[in-house]
């Protein structure tokens, strides 16, 4: 290499970083195919050379702005009506950036945990038909990658605006998709969904740590995050490395290819024994094996485990026959013809719980092998090994820490103009319902403050979940629903009740379309100002009439109704506070409630259970809001 060329290369390395710092840049939210909010001032921002003059133009709006001493700039375009496709142009004397296929329409932030994140193609109800009916390119999604930070002033996470089509929508948030589709078809505008979700996360992570300093239950953690953000960021980075190692181990095929743990010839005589279904969870990467003897080779065969928690691979005689992820429901596995043979047959499982490392397999009465017309019970002794493959790293739930998701996935979006927020979260706060009302209210208020918008907030109440109880009992799930109801005291909010859409066995109910339909109904009323009934019946008042309680409701529409033969979901208590299942019937537009076991009822609960069969509706077919009344601390009907 010549000395001249060598000197030129050194000079280029010295000056390139400076040139890059002066380069005109915008956050990745500004890109081809983006949707911008109609009828609101539009904020456009980015980086440029300090003091540089810029011109920003979109459709009929144009403005000029000057980059500050740090090279940062923020331009505001006047509100414009829906339309497109347009071109957004940002230009200086030296450079010009243009984004094409830009539409003005409605932009919504879809946020929360896994039920909002849940993809359309992840076994949601009738998803295949929905994919076929998805050629709607004016609906676009910007799905943020999962990221967290203890530090504020983070960049917008890198993603792209994706247009809806049969090739793309299976990977969209199911609720986001159904909501956007109704918005688009009914309002006739382009719709953008910014998907900022992370399964299994708590509300405090989505709330600024600063705002949590005075919120009961979170003051200490928030103060710690505020006091040493750099220390926490280092912990986050170290934890991220452990998480990457964990997923590398989860995805490893060494147990199959090198260790041959699914092969019948492998000696498992020194493995420990466990009885399935296992009452005590196992840990790490668990291999399970059982030999089943058949008198003859079946012509048809299937296998069922009831439940595998939560990532599993299933092998028969060394051949993998099924794979299950956390998003799947365990189904009957149809086995290939000729795989089972007369004599010994080995069933092997590789199971991992990526969530909390607590591995469990099977449900009582639901663990079997069917060979032709014979069903063999697979419950009982299995051999297991959880040391053959490396131990999983100890990954902490740092994505639950105060403010870390707000810093990384919400604040960077500001001040991108949006129509509002649709939110589905609360499951991860179910163990501390006493704190949730203040926590959730703080989250909403802090988002509005930072966004400098009224920011309508439409949210989903927890669905029914877990095994129903025959008798009334305390329920943290019900208490959290009450906290969600109390949050309706904030203006520009609406809550969707989905107690009738839950799943006893699965915290992720697959009927996402009706959830989105109810959210959209709320949006039409609260956000678009349409005069319609968007809430189910809301408790108004209670009057004692001897051995009965007479209940009155708001939001009944043209009348209350029952879905089924008799009203369900009510319980009453006397002065001793002991609740008993109650009978109930409609009396005009009111409900009479009583129990033969309570002579003088003084309090009532409705839908107060983890899983409730409550079936009181209004004329719009919307379920009543769960409530309790007449007891100390009862929220009663709010809004």
Describe the protein in words.
Helix 4 packs across helix 11 and helix 9 (433-451) packs parallel to helix 10 (476-486). Mean pLDDT is 94; it is low at 1-20. Helices cover 21% and strands 29% of the residues. The strands form eight sheets. Strands 1, 3, 4, 6, 7, 8, 9, 10, 23, 24 and 25 form an eleven-stranded mixed β-sheet that branches. A six-stranded antiparallel β-sheet has the order 11-22-12-18-15-16, with no helix packed on it. It contains eleven helices and 35 strands. The chain is of the alpha+beta class and 639 residues long.
Brief synopsis:
The chain has 639 residues and is an alpha+beta fold. It has 11 helices and 35 strands. It is globular, with a radius of gyration of 29 Å.
Task: Indicate the low-confidence ranges by residue numbers.
Answer: 1-20
Residues in β-strands, percent: 25-35%
Q: Radius of gyration in whole Å, from Cα?
A: 29 Å
What share of residues is helical? 10-25%
Q: How widely separated are the two ends?
A: 78 Å
Shape: globular
Q: What's the rounded overall pLDDT mean?
A: 94
Number of helices: 11
Structural class: alpha+beta
Number of strands: 35
């Amino acid at each position: 290499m010549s000395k001249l060329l060598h000197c030129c290369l050194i000079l280029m390395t010295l000056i390139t970083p400076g040139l890059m710092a002066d380069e005109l840049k915008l956050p990745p939210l500004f890109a081809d195919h983006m949707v911008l909010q109609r009828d609101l001032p539009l904020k456009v921002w980015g980086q440029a050379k300090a003091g540089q003059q810029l011109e920003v133009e979109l459709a009929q709006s144009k403005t000029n702005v000057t980059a500050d001493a740090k090279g940062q700039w923020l331009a505001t375009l006047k509100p414009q009506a829906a339309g497109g496709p347009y071109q957004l142009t940002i230009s200086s004397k030296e450079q010009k950036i243009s984004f094409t296929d830009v539409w003005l329409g409605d932009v919504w932030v879809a946020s929360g945990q896994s039920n909002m994140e849940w993809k359309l193609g992840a076994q949601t109800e009738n998803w295949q038909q929905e994919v076929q009916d998805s050629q709607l390119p004016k609906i676009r999604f910007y799905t943020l990658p999962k990221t967290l930070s203890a530090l504020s002033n983070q960049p917008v996470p890198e993603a792209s605006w994706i247009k809806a089509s049969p090739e793309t929508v299976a990977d969209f948030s199911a609720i986001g998709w159904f909501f956007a589709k109704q918005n688009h078809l009914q309002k006739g505008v382009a719709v953008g969904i910014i998907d900022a979700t992370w399964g299994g996360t708590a509300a405090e992570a989505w709330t600024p740590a600063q705002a949590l300093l005075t919120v009961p239950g979170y003051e200490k953690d928030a103060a710690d995050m505020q006091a040493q953000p750099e220390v926490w960021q280092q912990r986050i980075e170290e934890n991220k490395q452990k998480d990457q190692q964990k997923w590398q181990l989860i995805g490893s095929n060494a147990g199959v290819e090198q260790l041959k743990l699914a092969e019948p010839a492998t000696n498992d005589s020194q493995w420990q024994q466990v009885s399935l279904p296992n009452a005590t969870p196992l840990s790490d990467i668990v291999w399970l094996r059982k030999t089943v003897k058949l008198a003859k080779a079946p012509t048809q065969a299937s296998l069922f485990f009831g439940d595998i928690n939560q990532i599993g691979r299933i092998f028969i005689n060394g051949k993998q026959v099924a794979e299950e992820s956390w998003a799947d429901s365990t189904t009957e596995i149809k086995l290939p013809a000729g795989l089972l043979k007369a004599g010994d047959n080995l069933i092997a499982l590789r199971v991992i719980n990526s969530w909390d490392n607590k591995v469990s397999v099977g449900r009582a009465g639901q663990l079997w092998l069917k060979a032709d017309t014979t069903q063999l019970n697979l419950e009982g002794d299995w051999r297991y090994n959880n040391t053959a493959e490396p131990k999983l790293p100890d990954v902490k739930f740092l994505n639950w820490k105060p403010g870390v998701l707000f810093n990384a996935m919400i604040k960077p979006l500001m001040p991108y103009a949006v129509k509002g927020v649709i939110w589905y979260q609360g499951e991860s706060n179910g163990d501390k319902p006493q704190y949730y009302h203040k926590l959730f209210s703080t989250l909403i208020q802090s988002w509005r403050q930072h966004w400098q918008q009224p920011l309508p907030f439409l949210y989903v109440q927890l669905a029914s979940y877990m095994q129903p109880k025959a008798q009334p009992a305390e329920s943290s799930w019900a208490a959290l629903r009450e906290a969600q109801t109390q949050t309706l005291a904030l203006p520009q909010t609406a809550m969707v009740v989905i107690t009738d859409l839950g799943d006893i066995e699965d915290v992720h109910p697959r009927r996402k379309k009706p959830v989105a339909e109810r959210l959209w109904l709320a949006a039409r009323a609260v956000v678009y100002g349409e005069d319609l009934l968007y809430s189910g019946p809301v408790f108004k008042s209670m009057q004692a009439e001897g051995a009965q309680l007479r209940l009155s409701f708001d939001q009944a529409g043209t009348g209350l109704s029952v879905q089924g033969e008799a009203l369900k979901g009510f319980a009453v208590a006397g002065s001793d506070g002991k609740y008993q299942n109650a009978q109930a019937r409609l009396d005009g537009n009111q409900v009479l409630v009583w129990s033969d076991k309570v002579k003088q009822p003084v309090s009532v609960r409705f839908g107060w259970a983890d899983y409730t069969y409550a079936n009181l509706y209004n004329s719009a077919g919307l379920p009543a809001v769960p409530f309790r009344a007449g007891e100390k601390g009862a929220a009663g009907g709010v809004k």
